[in-house]
Amino acid sequence: MRRWTTVLATLALVLTGAGAVPTAAAAPQIAACETGWGSQAKSEPGSLEMAGALADVRTGRHACYDRMVFDIPGMTTADPALYWVQYVPSFAHIPSQTGIPVEGGAVIEIEFTAPVNHSQYPVGLADPLPGLHFSGYQTFRDAKFGGYYDSATHIGLGVRARLPFRVLVLPERLVVDVAHRW
After folding, report:
1. Does the keyword Signal belong to this entry (predicted)?
2. Quick one: average pLDDT of 154-165?
3. Strands (DSSP E) along 62-172, which ranges?
4. 8-state DSSP, 170
């Protein structure tokens, strides 16, 4: 009889779930980060005509990448600014051949055909980009203004290491994302 009581009690616990063995909490899901962007130069045969001038630069931190956004009012996805984005051994003001130090393990040169609107975005040659602070960023380290010449604005972006990056053209924005890892 005792055996039947034990069997019935066990069956009742199993059916009600009270006898369930606690399990470890499920491990949090880690976002699958796309890193197939590569680290080769990227360019867009966009417009040489200026749709607008660079009005602001801002950054953001994401789970898989750090993002830099260039606000260019008047630029459209149908007629984007011409751009070139590539890793370079060092960053310089090309006309004067003056080197501009940019902190980080690697430097990405960002060029696009839009002048700087200095009344909205006051920046001088070799200056850090105004309002940007990179503490807490996994990839970004520094950003310097390399001047406006040959119809293009030049920016040096210092990153932790040579990592995959992509360039996106959005309405009135040019976006550069740099992955946190390969």
Report:
1. yes
2. 98
3. 65-71, 83-88, 92-93, 98-99, 106-112, 140-149, 152-159, 165-170
4. E
